[in-house]
Specification:
Elements (H helix, E strand, L loop, with lengths): L2 H19 L6 H24 L5 H27 L5 H6 L10 H28 L1
Helix pairs in contact: 1-2, 1-5, 2-3, 3-5
Length: 133
């Protein structure tokens, strides 16, 4: 997978999470989770862009650690939304703006898992290269 592909993928993930967050309850719990999940998911995309500009392998590892942490945080909040059934499925189905099923919480959780796995694997590869030097 090309670097630019992951830039696009992380940005699309953040946008999908933001759209999903619009369906969270309009109350204290919904506001809190919306704030947390929007911050962490957009941080994944923004910080992955920074990884693309890493100046060295050590800089790459440092920046990627932030991306992994934020992706894992996003995964946590998605799990909370899912386990607490915070998305009203009827509201979501009636929302005319939904063009695809990217708002489905299970798809978002799957994407968060895949992104974390990709980032961890990339980090391991760079660490192996550093250890060979």
């Amino acid at each position: 997978m090309k670097n630019n592909d992951l830039n696009i993928r992380t940005k699309e993930f953040a946008k999908a999470v933001i759209r999903m967050a619009n369906d969270l309850p309009n109350n204290r719990v919904g506001w809190t989770i919306t704030d947390q999940i929007v911050r962490s998911s957009t941080s994944v995309a923004a910080n992955y862009r920074a990884v693309s500009r890493a100046k060295s392998d050590k800089d790459f590892i440092y920046k990627m650690a932030i991306v992994i942490e934020e992706a894992d945080d996003t995964h946590f909040w998605l799990d909370m939304v899912d386990e607490l059934n915070l998305i009203n499925k009827e509201t979501q189905k009636s929302n005319k703006a939904i063009q695809t099923n990217d708002l489905d919480i299970k798809n978002l959780i799957k994407e968060a898992n895949e992104l974390v796995a990709i980032f961890v694997s990339s980090t391991k590869t760079i660490k192996k290269r550093l250890n060979k030097k």
